[in-house]
Amino acid sequence: MIVNPKQGAGAQVIPLGKRLTFRILLMTAVGLLLTLAAIAYTLLLSWQLEGGGAAINEAGSLRMRSYRLVQVIEHPSPSFSATRELAEFDRVLMDLQQGDPRRPLFLPQTEPIRAQMRQVQEVWQVQMRHELEAMMRMSEGSTKQEALALYLKKLPSFVDSINSLVSLVEVELAEKTTWLRLCQTALIFMSLAASVALLYLLYLWIVGPVTRMRAGIAKMSQDELDVRLPIESEDEFGVLAQAFNHMADHVQSVHRTLEDRVSEKTAKLQSQNHEMSTLYEIAGFLAGPHAIEELCRGFLHRIMQRMHADGGTVRILDKHSDNMHI
């Protein structure tokens, strides 16, 4: 973009995309958004790891609860109720299925984990819980012992399905832990790269133009009036460089005109001084006691020197006869 010097740099309207303030604000906003996005993602991963860790603990407790139910049914005790243990088992399964953001507690929502969770729930609802409720209604005897023996045969398979669920969650959390470390490492390198880019852009946009402006002003102060700044951008510093060049043109023009006027005045004064010196010289000569011929000859000689003439004559007016004598 070129500005007419007659209009001045102040008449230029800088486009929004070229303004230095806009670029700095845009760079700050982009950096802030990227930083917030990276931090939010790492916080999300941390929250998922915390919820997954709680899910592993709850799922692992199902194995212990499965064996405790056998003991409670086989050896009833006032301090342990089979009904309460069944309700607690159902609550843990419900928490694993629906999650609890307040703790937090939730299973990773991957298809293998969800399928394994459905399998655990199905085995519990269809087989294990049904058989436990049937044993709770039985009285002591051989039939109850046979039901307990059958339940104990199925229990290892059920516990293995719980172990598979826990293993899948552990593998998923291990992957998320790796991702968390990678994100933290990437955040460190991104911060370093952003710092280097920020320093480079600040030098390119601000430090460089200010340095060139200061060098130009220093040269101007040393009477180097032909100095001009390169216009390398269309932002505020580009407009400022154009204004500096316009000012330098004006100062150089005024200085050149001033020199011409001083030279002209000096020549005129020298001419006037020469005329005055010639006038004083002739007046002094005429005031001396000279004969008329010598007086005319001396006067003519001085006039010819002043006028740079090759020859001349002097005529004397006779007042009585009104005649001119050479």
Structure description:
- With 326 residues, the chain is mainly α.
- Helix content is 75%, strand content 2%.
- The protein has a two-stranded antiparallel ribbon.
- Strand 1 and strand 2 form a beta hairpin.
- The longest helix has 80 residues, at 142-221.
- The two termini are 78 Å apart.
- Mean pLDDT is 82; it is low at 1-10.
Q: Topology of this structure?
A:
Layout: H1 20-74, H2 82-98, H3 111-137, H4 142-221, H5 236-286, H6 292-307, E1 316-318, E2 323-325
Antiparallel strand pairs: 1-2
Helix pairs in contact: 1-2, 1-4, 2-3, 3-4, 4-5, 5-6
Radius of gyration (CA) equals 54 Å
The number of distinct β-strands equals 2
- Would you tell me the overall average pLDDT? 82
User: How far apart are the termini?
Assistant: 78 Å
Write a concise keyword list for the protein shown above:
mainly alpha; two-stranded antiparallel sheet; 75% helix; 326 residues; 2 domains; disordered N terminus; 6 helices
